Amino acid sequence: MHLRRDTIRAEEHPVFPGRLSCIDCQRSAGAPYVTWGSVPREERITKGEPRKIAHANRIRSFAACCGTHLFFEETKDSEIIDVTIASLDDPAPFAPQKAIWLEDKLPWVVIDESLPSFPKTPNATWPTLSL
């Protein structure tokens, strides 16, 4: 995968893309939701150093050149990181496979009813990335 302007490169494609409506994602993106996909931490290779911001015990990374939201890390030692799908050169193949944090969803946002949907994160019910 490649982010526009070749800021990141990874051999693995993001897996388990999901549409997150949590309040942290809304505020960090200035949008009603963000679509993320997961990759193993070792797959993330950057050209240049993203700007990292720690908030609510999590780490968000942004492209230093333009401010594009790139990564989300649960902790600095997370085995997987999430990549913003819309930041990829070709986000079309990575349609959301789930909708989560619906308890924070804005009332005017319409959810695709064919997607598995969860009020919070479905840790116990969604497959994990095998490393």
Helix-strand blueprint:
Elements: E1 8-9, E2 15-20, H1 23-29, E3 34-40, E4 45-46, E5 51-55, E6 58-62, E7 69-73, E8 80-84, E9 98-100
Parallel strand pairs: 2-9
Antiparallel strand pairs: 1-4, 2-3, 3-8, 5-6, 6-7, 7-8
Report on this structure.
This protein has 131 residues and is mainly beta. The chain has a single domain (4-104), classed as glutathione-dependent formaldehyde- activating enzyme (gfa), CATH 3.90.1590.10. Helix content is 5%, strand content 31%. The chain has one helix and nine strands, in the order E-E-H-E-E-E-E-E-E-E. It has one helix at 23-29, and strands spanning 8-9, 15-20, 34-40, 45-46, 51-55, 58-62, 69-73, 80-84, 98-100. The strands form two sheets. It has a seven-stranded mixed beta sheet. It has a two-stranded antiparallel sheet with strand order 1-4. The longest helix has 7 residues, at 23-29. The chain is globular, with a radius of gyration of 14 Å. Residues 124-131 have low confidence and may be disordered.
User: Looking at the structure, what is the overall shape?
Assistant: globular
User: Number of DSSP strands?
Assistant: 9
Top-tier CATH class: Alpha Beta
Radius of gyration (Å):
14 Å
Terminus-to-terminus distance: 18 Å
- What's the tally of helices? 1
The CATH homologous superfamily is termed glutathione-dependent formaldehyde- activating enzyme (gfa)
Strand content: 25-35%
Strand order of the largest sheet: 5-6-7-8-3-2-9
From the 3D structure, determine the CATH topology. Answer: glutathione-dependent formaldehyde- activating enzyme (gfa)
Question: Pairing-aware structural class of the strands and helices?
Answer: mainly beta
Please state the second-level CATH architecture: Alpha-Beta Complex
